[in-house]
């Protein structure tokens, strides 16, 4: 469990470097992914979620980054435990 936290920090840093080197930084979505080992965490029911296209693009970029380093492993998005922060700017009045 604790190793997953350290590994996730390394992935976050590596992913940001990967996006910078690839000129793929997305100014609309900032995404942080935690990669957890199955079996060390509770399981949750699968949720059918329709993600916005801009988020799907970021998810795809992370999958590509991850698979370059860990071919043969499987990623499974656990939306049930995810979070989203939405920021908006409105005109006065």
From TrEMBL:
Recorded superkingdom: Eukaryota
InterPro entries reported in the protein's UniProt record: Cullin (IPR045093), Cullin-like_AB (IPR059120), Cullin_homology (IPR016158), Cullin_homology_sf (IPR036317)
UniProt record, GO biological process: ubiquitin-dependent protein catabolic process
Molecular-function annotations in GO: ubiquitin protein ligase binding
Alphabetized SUPFAM superfamilies for the sequence: Cullin homology domain
Domain Cullin family profile, first and last residues per copy: 1-93
Similarity comment text for this entry: Belongs to the cullin family.
Protein name per Swiss-Prot or TrEMBL: Cullin family profile domain-containing protein
Organism for this UniProt entry: Trichinella nativa
């Amino acid at each position: 469990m604790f190793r997953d936290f350290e590994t996730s920090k390394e992935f976050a840093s590596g992913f940001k470097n990967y996006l910078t080197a690839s000129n793929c930084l997305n100014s609309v979505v900032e995404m942080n992914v935690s990669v957890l080992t199955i079996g060390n965490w509770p399981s949750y029911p699968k949720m059918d979620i329709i993600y916005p296209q801009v988020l799907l693009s970021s998810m795809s970029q992370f999958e590509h980054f991850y698979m370059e380093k860990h071919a043969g492993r499987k990623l499974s998005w656990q939306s049930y435990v995810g979070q989203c922060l939405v920021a908006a700017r409105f005109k006065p009045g």
